[in-house]
Specification:
This protein is an alpha+beta fold. The protein has three helices and four strands; from the N terminus they run αβββαβα. Helix 2 (about 50-60) links the parallel strand 3 (about 45) and strand 4 (about 65-70).
Length: about 90
């Protein structure tokens, strides 16, 4: 079985593994930018310190660039941000 030389693999173009998604409701505004082929950089501003911490661990140790900006109703609690930040069909 023959193997491809390393030089031929360097010329392959892979699809982009990044996305930006915005979700706006009457209560919250959320914008997420992700690059799965990143370096672990990004800005996290969810308004929920523990969520910022957990997302920071994911981006840092997974080498994922991640920006998350959440504005909205956190005066009562953070349930809206936690719910809206979960993966769902937008």
């Amino acid at each position: 079985m023959s193997q491809l030389p390393i030089e031929s693999l360097q010329s392959i173009e892979f699809p982009s593994r990044q996305a930006t998604v915005e979700r706006n409701t009457a209560e919250t505004k959320i914008k997420v930018r992700i690059n799965l082929d990143g370096t672990g950089e990004g800005v996290l501003d969810t308004g929920v310190p523990f969520l910022n911490h957990m997302l920071d661990q994911i981006k840092r140790h997974g080498l994922i660039d991640l920006d998350v900006k959440c504005d909205g109703d956190t005066e009562i609690d953070d349930h809206m941000h936690r719910w809206m930040s979960r993966y769902q069909e937008w």
